[in-house]
Design a protein that fits this description.
The structure holds three protein chains of three kinds. By secondary structure, chain A is α+β, with helices and mostly antiparallel strands. Helix content of chain A is 33%, strand content 26%. Chain A has 13 helices and 14 strands. In chain B, helix 14 packs parallel to helix 15. In chain B, strand 21 and strand 22 form a beta hairpin. By secondary structure, chain B is α+β, with helices and mostly antiparallel strands. Chain B folds into three domains: 126 residues, Aldehyde oxidase/xanthine dehydrogenase, molybdopterin binding domain (Aldehyde Oxidoreductase, domain 4); 171 residues, Aldehyde Oxidoreductase, domain 3, CATH 3.90.1170; 323 residues, Aldehyde oxidase/xanthine dehydrogenase, molybdopterin binding domain (Aldehyde Oxidoreductase, domain 4), CATH 3.30.365.10. By secondary structure, chain C is an alpha+beta fold. Chain C is 30% helix and 14% strand. In chain C, strand 1 and strand 2 form a beta hairpin. The longest helix of chain C is centred in the last third of the chain and has 13 residues. Chain C is elongated. Chain C starts with a strand and ends with a strand. Classes of the chains: A alpha+beta, B alpha+beta, C alpha+beta. Chains in contact: A-B, A-C, B-C. At the B-C interface, helix 1, helix 17 and strand 27 of B face helix 2, helix 3, helix 4, helix 5 and strand 6 of C. Strand 27 of chain B pairs parallel with strand 6 of chain C, so a sheet runs across the interface.
Chain lengths: 279, 739, 159
């Protein structure tokens, strides 16, 4: 076990370039579970905890910047995020217990790329932009495009997540909701996670809608087919039902140790329906 | 002021609250090496070879296999069928095959990767069904470890004459005790050859007995000491025999102390669980709603070895008819062998399995008869003078009716049922609501003649320094036995609670007061100590004329009375001549007394997600006498939540004979947010032979919530689930099918 | 070398940088009040405070605590003189087997210092990261409420 402990961003990127197989360590709430299970023996660790700047949350002209090392607890209690991005606050509140919220970071959570990441559907409906940085490059990727599969991202060798940018929508949505369905009331791994925002215009016509689900596919899914069908149509029972029929095109739930494919599909459908119907 | 009936502060509380209490892994042991276990990876196979591969510095380690066992290779309990280390054949996944000790804990774990076992596969029976089909034969000719039958009257004839009959198959799964402190043991040999074991355990004398055949040592050369124990719930009743044997074998070969501490994954995968059971329950009532016939068939999954399964099954059988009278009863029960890790003791010990069927069946009888299940219960409850399935006549201390009345009233059961029915008709309501009831009895102490065979002893001493000291092998595992026993002794002597100490639970210092199991510590051990206290008090009075009123007076008296050593009185359990049980026919007084309980669960089922949220629990439990009400209430609420977990969340998932969700992340136990508010009422119908009237407490709360939950879910959804846990997935699926 | 304070005492550590905080506390400093229950951040038995915030010490490599202020259960009180929170737990039945207790206390003490709300729902949410298998949680919730100056309404009712 070798631990690299960079003091600042430049140092970190240089070390990572030289040690592309190193495991970046943020809050450790996922990585340390692997270590405890003996799965990281003899690996190299890049400990990012010295990068103090990366844990900042700040307001920007367009919205909010959340440093990769900001913890779920810091995000959950930040006044600007509480005011403008309530879905993210709700999702951070459901991550583990207080101990995990105090330690786990947003950047670490994204890099870990669990299909059950609780914050991802919220980030997806806010169309969050993930900023990455390497020794010789900077990139920006939409949240739902950074994931390549179960526990896999499109991050390149030597590339780290620097922060997440959220842009305040021009008009506040008419309706929004976050709902996690887990294995129990708290400290649970999700079976399905829903986040949605809806903008209704005149005569209940859908001006815009953003829906996302987690835990029902290898990565978080924006429900593009369902969204497209709804947009521009009057929101009535018939429209909702026909939109819901498109859901299987957007998600691919599976049977696993925690739940079943059927349940995930049905509850996802129910969650979207009850959100759209305003119940 | 008397101590009994007061919320006296927990004796060992301050140490536990400050981190000063030493659990097994907290005790520094100089020169100790760490022991780990090599386990089989297949459910049933001949072991052809065990190879210790290159790449690990084996010279630094000590390795033990079955060949190193000096005596008999067994974990002695009821029988000697379970090997301490599998030799020629392995009968379940995770069966111990070899042991390794190393000075460094992580190196010890690393060494496991360098052991290879060669197998020749044998057919395996992994479930009750496969065992009954004889997919593999593990025991005798039919895989049946043990069977019981209770027959009273003619159930078949009575069933034919009944007005309404129901026939249902109920299923309950494994359950993991999930004590928060995993199992652990330290072992070494003294210079004089004495084997010492120090660990997290419930029954020190079980370990003394289990070590004798392995090492060929006499009882006096084996010393077992209980460390502060972080929960047991039955899980540390018999399994510590195994880990003790392993640690001792390594200590013997390594010639130094050995520490074996399981991590959570190992603990969950390999240690005993509650027995899964299938109960086919047939019941008949007459037009008045009187229970006239019961025909019950119970099958429990014992796992690969016998362990305590016959006793678990026995308790299951004796509780199978529920706390109701029925003239014609036929109960048949078997426990069968499967190629899975052995199941064993878990709070309730067979009764939760059969009571689940007995209680939930009232919902089906209610459906069939259109009489509500509360009324049906009321018409059949046992009372003084009632006869149980074994022919036992209840002579005293039956508080069941009172318990049920209290719960029905405090929960506003009838009103809520009506309100919920209206709520559930609303199309736009976000939830369905339901309230459900159950009532149970639970025998206190060992079954049948168990206490007679045990011949438990407990002592009370006055020390030279003028302190009263309890000497018993009763293990404090969180249930509050230290305080409870001290309160009994304090009042029997007529002295303050603070004057009572407890001797360390060390077999060299305390007599065998029997295992800490079966809701027996307060009633049985407490009873012995109560009698010993009377003896001691009489002896003090005989010398001093006036019983000491202050500590100074007591110290003065002690100087005279205990100058040459403690003044000690020991009492041994004696058979009550008017309690008779026939082990062969299962007729007679199965238990000296029973506790009784009623409970109501109010819950909601989310119509979007099918998640069940328990809103409130009301329970009333007749425990004879609450020696320490706060502690009794803590026992009841803790047991209730374990049972709610069993009913709704906890599901050990088995694949190829092994539990695959063996971690607290995936074996789901309730958090503080899953736990409902609980309203607990203690009903006190004293038992004449219990100390101050006390009966058993610990297990009953585990028996009762699951059927009440299923009854409530039935009101909420219209679905009766005869199988737990009732997960959101099972509700969703059942609703889909109903459409 | 890593430097930090444990219970207001300055400590240094120069062993393996990836040794877990729980092991450093227990093995190197003899502070065995902090318990290990699951080694994956699920049970909360290993909870300690870092800079006043509850965290799972089984998930923290010691290299990450340079300059930090660590508090463990040993910082609260001693058996002869309990901290008010410990006294509340003793009186309300908040400890049974005791293995979850140190972690539970550390979560609760952070809540107390933050001026937490005494409603049972809020207390339950704060403690959701600490599993207890003995109590059913109600007496723990009552203990925290008592420490917050609220008299719990529950309590046994003998008949």
């Amino acid at each position: 076990m070798k631990v690299l402990t960079p003091r600042d961003e430049r140092d970190a990127l240089r070390l990572y370039r030289r040690n592309p197989d190193a495991f970046p360590l943020a809050g450790g709430t996922d990585l340390m579970v692997l270590w405890n299970a003996g799965l990281l023996n003899k690996k190299t660790i890049l400990d990012l905890s010295g990068l103090r700047d990366w844990s900042r949350i700040r307001e920007t002209p367009k919205g909010v910047w959340i440093g990769a090392l900001a913890t779920h607890a810091e995000i959950r209690t930040h006044p600007a995020i509480r005011e403008r991005f309530p879905l993210l606050v709700d999702s951070c509140r459901t991550v583990g217990g207080r101990q995990i919220q105090n330690r786990g970071t947003l950047g670490g959570n994204i890099a870990n790329a669990s299909p059950a990441g609780d914050t991802f559907p919220a980030l997806a409906v806010y169309a969050a932009l993930v900023h990455t940085v390497s020794d010789n490059d900077r990139r920006v990727m939409p949240i739902d495009e950074i994931f390549a599969g179960v526990k896999k991202t499109h991050l390149k060798a030597g590339e780290l997540i620097e922060g997440v940018e959220l842009q305040t929508p021009p008009n506040p949505p008419s309706r929004w909701r976050f709902r996690k369905v887990g294995t129990r009331a708290a400290q649970a791994i999700s079976k399905t996670v829903f986040a949605g925002q809806l903008w209704l215009g005149k005569d209940k016509v859908v001006d815009d809608v953003k829906l996302a689900l987690g835990s029902v596919a290898p990565t978080v899914k924006r429900l593009r087919h369902v969204e497209t069908h709804l947009t521009g149509r009057a929101l009535d029972g018939k429209t909702i039902e026909s939109a819901l029929r498109l859901l299987p095109g957007d998600i691919h739930p599976i049977d696993d140790i925690r739940s079943t494919r059927e349940y995930r599909l049905q509850v996802s459908r129910n969650l979207i329906r009850s959100f759209l119907m305003g119940r | 002021m008397p101590a009994v009936g007061q919320d006296k502060l927990r004796k060992e509380g301050p140490k536990k609250l400050t981190g000063a209490a030493l659990y097994v892994d907290d005790i520094p042991v100089k020169g100790a090496w760490h022991g780990v276990t090599v386990r089989s990876t297949v459910p049933h196979a001949r072991i052809k070879d065990i190879r210790f591969l290159k790449g690990f510095p084996w010279k630094q380690a000590v390795v033990v296999t079955a060949a190193d066992i000096p005596g008999i290779n067994c974990v002695r309990l009821i029988e000697d069928d379970q090997p301490l280390l599998a030799d020629a054949i392995t009968r379940h996944v995770h069966e111990p095959v070899a042991l390794i000790a190393h000075p460094d804990r992580s190196a010890a774990y690393e060494s496991l990767k360098f052991v290879e076992i060669e197998y020749e596969a044998l057919p395996a029976a992994l479930t009750i069904e496969e065992s009954l089909r004889k997919k593999a034969i593990l025991r005798g000719s039919d895989n049946v470890f043990k069977q019981f039958r209770i027959k009273k009257g003619d159930a078949a004839k009575a069933m034919k004459k009944a007005w309404k009959t129901v026939d249902t198959v109920f299923r309950v799964p494994h359950q993991e005790q999930a004590y928060i402190e995993p199992q652990g043991m330290v072992s070494w040999f003294e210079k004089d050859g004495t084997l010492v074991l120090l660990g997290s355990l419930q029954c020190p004398y079980y370990i003394v007995k289990a070590m004798q055949p392995i090492f060929g040592l006499p009882e006096e050369k084996i010393r077992v000491v209980q460390a502060v124990t972080g929960g047991g719930f039955g899980g540390k009743e018999e399994y510590p025999n195994m880990i003790a044997g392993h640690a001792a074998l390594l200590a013997r070969k390594a010639k130094r102390p050995i520490k074996m501490i399981y991590d959570r994954h190992e603990d969950m995968a390999v240690t005993t669980k509650r027995h899964p059971a299938v109960v086919r329950h047939r019941a008949g009532i007459d037009r008045k709603g009187k229970l006239v016939a019961l025909d019950i068939d119970v099958v429990m999954d014992a796992g690969a070895y016998l362990t305590l399964s016959p006793v678990v099954l026995s308790r299951g059988v004796l509780h199978a008819s529920g706390p109701y009278t029925c003239a014609d009863v036929d109960i048949r029960a078997r426990c069968v062998a499967t190629n899975t890790p052995p199941n064993g003791a878990y709070r309730g010990f067979g009764a939760p399995q059969t009571l689940f069927a007995a209680e939930l069946q009232w919902e089906n009888l209610s459906e069939a008869s259109k009489i509500d299940s509360l009324t049906l219960r009321e018409r059949n409850l046992v009372k003084i003078g009632s006869e149980l399935s074994t022919g036992q006549i209840l002579k005293e201390s039956v508080g069941l009716k009172k318990c049920l009345e209290v719960v029905v009233k405090r929960s506003a059961y009838a009103k809520r049922r009506k309100e919920h029915a209206l709520w559930n008709k609303k199309k736009t309501a976000p939830t369905w609501r339901g309230i459900g009831l159950a009532a149970v009895h639970h025998g206190s102490g060992f079954t049948g003649n168990g206490e007679v065979f045990l011949k438990s002893r407990a002592s009370l001493s006055l020390t030279k320094r003028g302190r009263f000291r309890i000497e018993a092998a009763a293990s404090e595992i969180g249930q509050g036995s230290m305080s409870t026993l001290s309160q009994i002794v304090a009042d029997a002597l007529g002295v303050p609670y603070e004057w009572i100490d407890l001797e360390v639970n060390d077999t060299r210092r305390v007599p065998d007061s029997g295992p800490t199991v079966a809701s027996r510590t307060c009633m049985v051990v407490g009873g012995l100590l109560h009698a010993a206290a009377r003896d001691l008090k009489a002896a003090i009075l005989a010398k001093t004329k006036k019983f000491p009123k202050t500590e100074t007076e007591l110290q003065a008296a002690a100087k005279a009375l205990a100058a040459k050593g403690p003044l000690r009185f020991t009492r041994r359990f004696e058979k009550n001549t008017d309690i008779e049980f026939d082990d062969k026919t299962y007729r007679g007084d199965a238990y000296g007394s029973y506790g009784y309980a009623a409970l109501a669960v109010d819950l909601e089922v989310d119509r979007t997600t099918y998640e069940v949220s328990v809103k409130k629990v009301w329970t009333a439990q007749d425990i004879g006498k609450a020696i320490n009400p706060k502690i009794v209430e803590g026992q009841i609420m803790g047991g209730t939540l374990q049972a709610l977990g069993w009913a709704l969340l906890e599901k050990p998932v088995y694949k190829n004979g092994a539990m695959i969700n063996n971690q607290l992340t995936n074996y789901i136990i309730p958090t503080a947010m899953d736990a409902p508010a609980m309203d607990v009422v203690l009903v006190e119908e004293p038992y004449s032979r219990g100390p101050f009237g006390a009966k058993g407490v610990g297990e009953m709360p585990m028996d009762i919530p699951a059927p009440a939950v299923c009854a409530a879910i039935r009101q909420a959804t219209g679905l009766l689930f005869p199988e737990i846990p009732v997960t959101p997935e099972s509700i969703a699926e059942a609703l889909r099918r109903k459409k | 070398m890593i430097r930090f304070t444990v219970n207001a005492k300055t400590r240094t550590f120069s062993g393996p940088p990836f040794k877990r905080l729980i092991d450093v506390l227990r093995e190197d400093f003899g502070l065995t009040g902090t318990k290990e229950g699951c080694s994956e951040g699920e049970c909360g038995a290993c909870s300690v405070l870092i800079d006043g915030k509850p965290v799972n010490s089984c998930l923290i490599p010691v290299c990450q605590i340079n300059g930090a202020k660590i508090e463990t259960v040993e910082s609260l009180g001693v058996p002869e003189k309990l901290h008010p929170l410990q006294d509340s737990f003793l009186r309300e039945g908040g400890t049974q087997c005791g293995i979850c207790t140190p972690g539970m206390l550390m979560s609760a003490v952070a809540y107390l210092r933050a001026g937490g709300d005494a409603s049972p729902e809020a207390i339950r949410e704060q403690l959701a990261g600490n599993l207890c298998r003995c109590t059913g949680y109600q007496q723990i919730v009552d203990s925290v409420a008592r420490a917050l100056g609220t008299k719990p309404k529950t309590g046994s009712k003998a008949k």
